[in-house]
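Help! Submission page says 'invalid entity' but I think these are all valid:
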Amino acid sequence: MAHSLLARYPWVASPFVVSAPMKVMSGPALAVAVSRAGGLGFIGPGAKTQDTTNDLEKASTLIANTIPTTSALPVGVGYQLWADDVGIAVAAIEKYKPCAVWLYAPKQGSQDYNDWSSRIRKASPETQIWIQIGTLKEAKQLLQLSESPDVVVVQGAESGGHGRANDSMGLMSLFPEVADVMASSRIPLFAAGGIADGRGLAAAMCLGASGAVMGTRFLAASEARISRGYQDEVVRASDGAVSTTRTLLYNHLRGTFGWPEEYSPRTIVNQSYVEQQQGKSFEELKVLHDEAAKAGDEGWGPTGRLATYAGASVGLIHDVKNAGDIVRETRNGALERLQQLFPHKN
Amino acid sequence: MAHSLLARYPWVASPFVVSAPMKVMSGPALAVAVSRAGGLGFIGPGAKTQDTTNDLEKASTLIANTIPTTSALPVGVGYQLWADDVGIAVAAIEKYKPCAVWLYAPKQGSQDYNDWSSRIRKASPETQIWIQIGTLKEAKQLLQLSESPDVVVVQGAESGGHGRANDSMGLMSLFPEVADVMASSRIPLFAAGGIADGRGLAAAMCLGASGAVMGTRFLAASEARISRGYQDEVVRASDGAVSTTRTLLYNHLRGTFGWPEEYSPRTIVNQSYVEQQQGKSFEELKVLHDEAAKAGDEGWGPTGRLATYAGASVGLIHDVKNAGDIVRETRNGALERLQQLFPHKN
C-alpha cells in the first residue's frame, strides 16, 4: 500500500478495511465504530442530503477527539450525485471536514465529478475525494478528469445495493484490467463487491487493491441502522449466486425512481420477485408490498416482500457482530492468510 | 497446498498452475508444454471421444519419459459427460493412464459422476478424478457421491466457454462459500474463471484454492490448437465485461446442440451477436456465418461472425506466448505478489 495513503488516515491499520457508505444504513454509529477499530467508516447518503449533515454532526460528537487523526474528521461520507444537493453537501463538508467524501452515480459523469470535487476541495482541502466505478469505461473517463480523484473504488458484479446494471463483471477479471489501465495515474484503488472476510481482503490485495470495501458484511453489524427483520435475512440467506439478483422491482415498490439507467441494485429475492417472475402485476405486488411494510420485521425473509438489498457475499455472513470485531477479524484473517501463503525461499 | 496433492503430481512446482481442458483447442502439444514447465496440462475433449484417445497417444509420445513422474502420464484429460462415450474414454484411460481425468457437464449429475469415476478407478487406480462445478448446489451434491472426487474445480461466472447459464457468480463470493461448505471433505479445490496471470492465481489462493486453472490465457499460447484468426481476436479484445457475453447463439450457428440446459458459453461478441440483438433472423445469421466460415481467419474479429469462446479475462491478455512462459510467469507473478504483501511482524 502506498505510504502516502496511510499517512492520510493515520488511525488506520494495515490491511485497509473500509465500510461502504450504504444509504441510510451506514449511520454515524457504524462509521465511527469502524474507524475506532482502525478501519475507515463511511456515513451513507440519507433520505435527504440534510440528513447526512445531521449524521456528520452526530459522528463528530461521538468521536470527540477519541481517534488520533489529522485535522480532518476520521470518518468519510458518501453522496449519490444524481440525488443529493451539492450545496447542502459542500456546506456540511466545509463544517465537519470528513477525511474522505465518496462520490457515486452522477447524472452527467465527468462534469458532475469535476464540479463536486472542485467545490469540495475549495471548502475542505484536507478532504480526500473517493470515486466509485464499476467499468473499464469509467476508469478511462476518470483519467481525463480535471479534478483527479485521490482514491478510486472498483466495484465488481458481486456487489449488493446499486451497481452497474448490464456491464458489470466479477472482480477477479475486472479489477486487474482496471488496475492496468489506471496504473500510470498512481491513484490507489480499493476493491468492493462480494468481499466479506479476510480471504476476500487478501485476494483483493493480490489483485492490486490498497484495501477492501465491505458493505453487506456491515449490514450484519450491531451498529448498522437497519431493521431487525432485514438484518436477520442477511444472516439467514446463503448461496448468494441464486438467493440474490439485480432488479429494479424493489426500488419501484418503495417508490424510488430516478436512478441513472446504468445502475441496478442487487437484493435478496423474496415473494415480491418470485411473484413478479410468475407474472403478477406491479399493481398487485405494490398492494401486497405496502401491507408487508406495515408488518414490520415480518416483512423480510423468504416469505416477505420488502427490499433486502445485499451482495452475493450473504452466504459468508452467519452472525451479527460488533463493527469493531468485523474490522479486526477481517484484517487479521487477511494477515493470517498472507502469512500462510508466504513463499519461503529454499 | 496439501502436501499429499503435490505428491500426486511430483513434477508440479508451487503455486499450482493448470491449463483447462478446452474442447479441441487444448491439444497434446499444449498439455505437454504446460506440464513440462511444472504445471499440469489437460487435453480437452475432442469432436469425438476417439479423437481424445488419439491425443493421449500423441501426448504419450511427446512426453517419452522426459517429465519426472509417478507411473501415471503427466498430463490430464477432460471429458464432457453428456457428449462423450464412457466406454471409449475408459479404454483410453486404462491404456494411457493420465494422472488426472476432468469430468464435466453430466446429463444425470451424481449418477454420471459415480459411474464414470468407478469405471475410471477400476481401469486406472493411479488416475485422479477432477470434477468441475460452478454452484453451491453442485458442491453439496458432490459431498453425497459414493465415488468422492480427488479434486474439485470451482468455476466462476467470469469463465469463458461453457459455464453455468443462469446461476453463476464471480469467484470472489462463490469460491469462499463453496470452500466453507466443502471444508469438512478436505478435498483440494482449484479456482477457474477470469484468471489470466499471477495476480489472479495469488488471489485464488487467498480465497482458499490449492491452485488456479486458466483457459483463455492458454488460447493465446503458441501451442494451442486454434485458428490464427481466433487467437488474434483473444489478443485484441479488451474490456471483458462488455466484449464478452454468455449466449447459445454461436453453438447453434455451428450446429452444436444438446448441452444440458444448465450450461451456456461465454464468447467474444461479434457481428452474429450484434445483428441477433438487432432482430436479424437465425436463418439469415446462419447463412452469413457459414459464408464467414469459408473466409478462414477473416471470419473472426469485431466484423467477423464465427464463435470466439473466451473468458472475461481477455483484457489481461496482450500477446501470444509459449505455454511454458505463461506457466512460469504466472507462477512467478503470484510468488512476487505474495512476497510483496507478506506482513512483516513489527
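Support: the input was valid. A stray whitespace character was the problem, and the output above is from the cleaned input. The first strand of chain A starts at residue 16 and ends at 19.
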